[in-house]
Specification:
The complex is a heterodimer of chains A (264) and B (469). By secondary structure, chain A is an alpha/beta fold. Chain A is 34% helix and 28% strand. Chain A has one domain: Rossmann fold (3-Layer(aba) Sandwich). In chain A, helix 6 runs parallel beside helix 7. Among the domains of chain B are: 278 residues, no CATH class; 42 residues, no CATH class. Helices cover 23% and strands 35% of the residues of chain B. The two termini of chain B are 39 Å apart. The chains are: A alpha/beta (264), B alpha/beta (469).
């Protein structure tokens, strides 16, 4: 295997996305690789969550221009489940409830979907792995028997997203406003979990409105999104600058447009 | 020997195959007085049955199709084109080895497993009209339990049979119970002596193999005082292009303190009209529980009921209906309270896929003179697509003081966001739907015996995976 193939990357090129008649992403460029943590910050309505959903293949959004490449291959024609199995994970801002389906069964189904036909998941191995990751995220054992996200608090839902991430071990994870609705204690637990998962085998895109999350998960790169474009990119200090100046600074035209950083 | 693997796996073509079976007795097409005489003679039945059948035939002719409240779809049935009796003419077989090879192949393909015999106390499988394979483990018959085809029972045990036959569901109950009474053939007869608890479920498979052939089995289960029995039936039918009619009558009698559980998981092919009358009679402190899963068929009309005749009797109906595209599941429950302190519970869940339609029809009746009766009714419907349809017609009449009824109904839909969420975790659209549907019925399925919950899950998986384009 060539060395260049060892590191996986996602490249978003000149992306334009509309929902119905309304264009939300207007020529966005972004690139990130395994082993890196990128933060995308931006005010409400800047298109951050749309970016996450488009990457995951949500059917409501139409890509009108550009491409999203995973290791050089376009994923735009792929169904959401194929993207997932190729290694793209998205932690939802609002995780869905699935009544009657236990967390354990849901995770088993998700892992089973990644196995080759005829291959069966070993139940003992599965539970061993599950309990290990649950301990990491300070989740109690009885959680496995509860229905997916049903009756969960905001914090439990977000922790469950990170648990799924930990179990599925994707090459790339997009965390869509994982900090929203969390109190500081829950935020710390979630951040701790993400930090433990960090490493050379995963590329993380943190989408957030607030600098707060970035105090706990220190990104390698920060991108600022405004009106459907990445308008500034820089190192982690950019987040602090944005925090002190506020998003109005961008709206006032202060955020001059820059080319995205070459991530690798 | 057949090369078909002996497995309980249900593949997606289940039921969509048949082998030519040389029928030795055939009443021909259409229904007349002569058809009935032919059946009586072919089966060498006593005169009282002949009279019973002829009377039922007159009742059948006198009753209109119930299209004033039920689906007009019933008008599609052409009673003159149906074959009412067909049998290989051989006596029921006692061991698997004696079963004719071509029939055996069909059963093996269906997955009535030889391996399950170890688990199941007795297997009686019905092929068309007659039981071709009938076997009871020694342990069960040693307890004095009688498990045989109803044709044998009416000849061999007229003392038990005649006492209860047609008493729970009279001939004139409805047009289809009358039809069954006129032409019934096959089905099971079970008698459990006082105090006997049958540890393993008794099981029968019913199957329709001949085109345009209606299957009219008749089952009668009597649990004597303080006894307990569980009966399971599974149904699959091969696929044919013209309408096939299945119209069974099942009567249960639970004498004081007895418990009967009757479990059905059926997977009819989409051209079958499945019009079944099922009712139990619960005496003092007796308990009757129907677990009924309806998958497939063109139209199913089935409302298992319990007549709570004795003080403190309990009745329960747990049902799951899955209406696939173009199918109509018209199901529900009837609870007739006829004594003080009787309780009934109805939990019904339906799933409508594509243009599938699920209808819940419930009847709960508590008359004024009774005291301390309770009913609980829950019906939940799940719609898979915008074109799916569900209707609920609960009729709850509770009079008198100190009687309580509670009714809850809900309709939910699997949202596109839920499917997207599951797909994002790697499940295909079909797998996601299937998981959501299985989740919806999960609390009911947990009450099923293990092998039936596995089978039901597989049937739902197949149905849901087939439903996405």
């Amino acid at each position: 295997m060539f060395e260049a193939e060892l590191m996986s990357s996602i490249v978003i090129k000149d992306l334009r996305v509309a929902i119905g008649e309304k264009e939300i992403i207007r020529g966005l460029n972004l690139e990130f690789s395994q082993g890196e943590v990128h933060a995308v910050m931006g005010p409400n309505g800047s298109g951050k969550s749309t970016l996450a959903k488009v990457m995951a293949g949500h059917p409501d959004y139409q890509v009108t221009n550009g491409d999203i490449l995973l290791d050089g291959e376009s994923i735009l024609e792929m169904e959401p489940d194929e993207r997932s199995r190729r290694g793209l994970f998205m932690a939802f801002q609002y995780p869905m409830e699935i009544p009657g389906v236990s967390n354990a069964n849901f995770l088993r189904a998700a892992i089973q979907a990644r196995l080759h036909e005829g291959e069966e998941l070993d139940a003992t191995d599965f539970y061993q792995r599950l309990y290990e990751k649950m301990d990491l995220l300070e989740i109690r054992r009885e959680f496995t028997a509860r229905s997916v996200n049903e009756g969960f608090s905001g914090g439990e839902k977000k922790r469950n997203e990170i648990l799924q991430l930990a179990i599925l071990e994707p090459a790339f994870a997009v965390l869509d406003e994982t900090d929203s609705g969390l109190d500081i204690d829950a935020l710390k637990v979630v951040a701790k979990g993400v930090n433990k998962l960090r490493g050379p085998d995963i590329g993380i895109l943190l989408i957030t409105h607030y600098q707060r999350l970035l105090n706990y998960i220190i990104p390698d790169y920060v991108h600022v999104m405004h009106e459907g474009q990445i308008v500034r990119s820089g190192a982690k200090d950019l987040a602090l600058e944005l925090e002190s100046k506020g998003y109005d600074w961008l709206k006032a035209g202060g955020g001059e447009r820059k080319e995205p950083v070459a991530a690798s | 020997m057949s090369t078909e693997p002996n497995t309980i796996d249900i593949d997606r073509d289940i039921g969509n195959f048949y082998y030519n079976v040389a029928a030795k007795k055939d009443a021909g097409v259409g229904l007349t007085e002569k058809t009935i005489d032919y059946i009586v003679e072919a089966k060498q039945e006593p005169e009282w049955i002949r009279e019973f059948r002829h009377n039922a035939y007159r009742v059948f002719n006198s009753k209109p199709l119930p299209t004033h409240w039920a689906s007009r779809e019933l008008e599609v049935i052409d009673f003159d084109k149906i074959r009412y009796y067909l049998a290989s003419g051989d006596a029921p077989k006692r061991s698997w080895e004696e079963v004719p090879e071509d029939i055996k192949r069909t059963f093996e393909r269906l997955g009535i497993p030889e391996s399950e015999r170890k688990f199941l106390a007795g297997v009686e499988a019905q092929f068309d009209s007659e039981a071709v394979y009938s076997n009871i483990k020694k342990a069960v018959s040693d307890q004095g339990v009688i498990f045989m085809g109803s044709t044998d029972a009416l000849k061999e045990r007229p003392d038990l049979f005649r006492k209860w036959f047609g008493k729970v569901i009279p001939t004139g109950d409805n047009k289809f119970s009358a039809l069954n009474s006129a032409v019934f053939s096959g089905g099971s007869f079970i008698y459990v002596p006082p105090g006997v608890k049958v540890n393993h479920p008794l099981q029968a498979y019913f199957r329709i193999n001949a085109e345009n052939f209606g299957q009219f089995e008749r089952t009668l289960i009597i649990a004597d005082e303080g006894s307990e029995v569980m009966y399971m039936e599974g149904c699959t039918a091969p696929k044919f292009t013209t309408a096939t009619l299945h119209s069974a009558v099942v009567e249960l009698v639970a004498l004081p303190g007895a418990k009967i559980q009757y479990i059905t998981v059926q997977n009819w092919s989409p051209n079958v009209f499945n019009l079944v009358t099922k009712r139990g009679l619960a005496h003092e402190e007796a308990e009757i529980k129907w677990i009924d899963c309806n998958i497939g068929s063109r139209l199913t009309m089935k409302y298992p009921g319990v007549v709570l005749k004795g003080r403190k009797a309990r009745g329960e109906v747990i049902s799951i209906a899955l209406a696939g595209d173009g199918q109509h599941q018209d199901t529900g429950a009837k609870m007739i309270h006829a004594a003080d302190e009787t309780t009934s519970n109805i939990v019904s869940k339906s799933i409508s896929v594509g243009k599938g339609r699920a209808t819940y029809r419930g009847l709960v009746h508590v008359p004024k003179h009774l005291k301390h009766c309770k009913n609980n009714t829950e019906c939940d419907a799940l719609l898979i697509n915008a074109h799916s349809r569900t209707d609920t017609y609960p009729a709850i009449t509770v009079r008198g003081t100190g009687n309580a009824a509670q009714h809850e109904a809900s309709v939910s839909q699997i949202s596109a966001e839920q499917i997207f969420y599951m797909q994002q975790r790697g499940l295909s659209e079909g797998q996601a739907m299937s998981l959501a549907v299985n989740g919806f019925v999960n609390d009911l399925v947990r009450q099923f015996p293990m092998e039936y919950s596995v089978e039901l899950k597989r049937l739902i998986d197949l149905e849901m995976e087939g439903s996405v384009g």
